[in-house]
């Protein structure tokens, strides 16, 4: 990574110019990246992010959260996305932003945000990591109220390419998204995740609807014709929509207390339109879940939620 450079913004970056810049620069990005590829050291800071009530309500509606004005655990990711996109479309960013695939995400909060809060956001690219299907970039978003850290996310975006890259490049890969294993007696047990608790029919327009709310208009989510150049015969759902929808189902469908930490790994794209099945298992510390295809055979997403009583120190 290049030397860190903090830049304070007066407003969130505009998404359309960033998307255009990403489209223009994508053909100039080399895949696989050079062995000495480095990330821009930019740390973008937005001192007082505004939580728009109408946008929050639209997000809650499309993701299945109660429309009571509360800020769902995954929502601050939407606030930080314009900053992340701005970094990922910089000239020195080594991966083409178009076609990047979300592979995992972990979010946690120290206290729930309210619609009236104006958190300070800091977003930066942490490191590159090898992946069996290409190269990932780890992006971090942090939110503070005053001097108090209140919310953090860390997640990876994959640029797909053929690779024989040894795992020693780009630094040691994380063994798990959380950079540490869950306790053995609390680890997800695939054999126990057998009870289907919800079944959702996903319309073809879901990617466009979530893209309008989140600002993430990656072509792979919008239309089959836009997705095909990136290797997808159909548009695919946003990973962050599937994540948020599973969190909402766990909290509202099962009556689980609001989570303070959640993690998901995106195993396979969810084609649009399509049907998916949500399965879960509760434990004293929270909920383990999977999102499978309509037949229940193929796993698209695996994840866990932790309640306040299971908060890590």
Blueprint (SSEs and pairs):
Elements: E1 5-8, H1 15-25, E2 42-46, H2 53-63, H3 76-88, E3 101-109, E4 120-131, E5 134-145, E6 148-160, E7 196-202, H4 206-214, H5 224-227, H6 239-253, E8 261-266, E9 274-283, E10 286-293, E11 299-306
Parallel strand pairs: 1-2
Antiparallel strand pairs: 2-4, 3-6, 3-8, 4-5, 5-6, 7-9, 8-11, 9-10, 10-11
Helix pairs in contact: 1-3, 2-4
Highlighted features:
single chain; 313 residues; alpha+beta; 11-stranded mixed beta sheet; 6 helices; 11 strands
Architecture overview:
- This protein has 313 residues and is α+β, with helices and mostly antiparallel strands.
- The protein is built from six helices and eleven strands.
- It has helices at 15-25, 53-63, 76-88, 206-214, 224-227, 239-253, and strands spanning 5-8, 42-46, 101-109, 120-131, 134-145, 148-160, 196-202, 261-266, 274-283, 286-293, 299-306.
- A hairpin with a 2-residue loop joins strand 5 (134-145) and strand 6 (148-160).
- Helix 1 (15-25) packs parallel to helix 3.
- The longest helix has 15 residues, at 239-253.
């Amino acid at each position: 990574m290049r030397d860190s450079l903090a830049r304070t913004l007066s407003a969130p970056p505009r998404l359309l110019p960033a998307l255009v810049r990403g489209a223009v620069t994508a053909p100039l990005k080399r895949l696989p990246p050079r062995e000495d590829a480095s990330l821009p050291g930019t740390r973008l800071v937005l001192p007082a992010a505004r939580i728009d009530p109408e946008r929050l309500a639209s997000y809650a509606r499309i993701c299945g959260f109660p429309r009571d004005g509360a800020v769902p655990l995954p929502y601050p990711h939407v606030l930080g996305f314009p900053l992340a996109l701005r970094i990922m479309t910089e000239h020195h960013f080594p991966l083409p932003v178009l076609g990047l695939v979300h592979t995992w995400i972990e979010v946690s909060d120290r206290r729930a945000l309210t619609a009236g809060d104006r958190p300070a956001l800091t977003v930066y690219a942490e490191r590159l990591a090898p992946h069996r299907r290409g190269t990932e970039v780890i992006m971090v978003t942090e939110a503070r109220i005053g001097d108090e850290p209140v919310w953090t996310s860390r997640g990876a975006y994959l640029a797909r390419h053929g690779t024989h890259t040894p795992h020693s490049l780009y630094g040691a890969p994380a063994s798990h998204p959380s950079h540490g294993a869950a306790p053995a007696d609390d680890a997800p047990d695939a054999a126990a995740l057998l009870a289907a608790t919800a079944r959702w029919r996903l319309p073809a327009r879901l990617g466009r609807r979530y893209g309008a709310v989140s600002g993430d208009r990656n072509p792979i989510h919008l239309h089959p014709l836009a997705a095909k150049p990136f290797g997808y015969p159909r548009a695919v759902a946003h990973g962050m929509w599937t994540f948020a929808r599973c969190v909402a189902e766990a909290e509202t469908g099962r009556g689980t207390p609001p989570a303070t930490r959640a993690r998901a790994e995106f195993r396979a794209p969810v084609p649009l339109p399509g049907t998916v099945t949500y399965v879960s298992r509760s434990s004293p510390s929270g909920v383990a879940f999977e999102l499978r295809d309509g037949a229940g055979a193929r796993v698209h997403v695996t994840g866990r939620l932790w309640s306040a009583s299971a908060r890590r120190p």
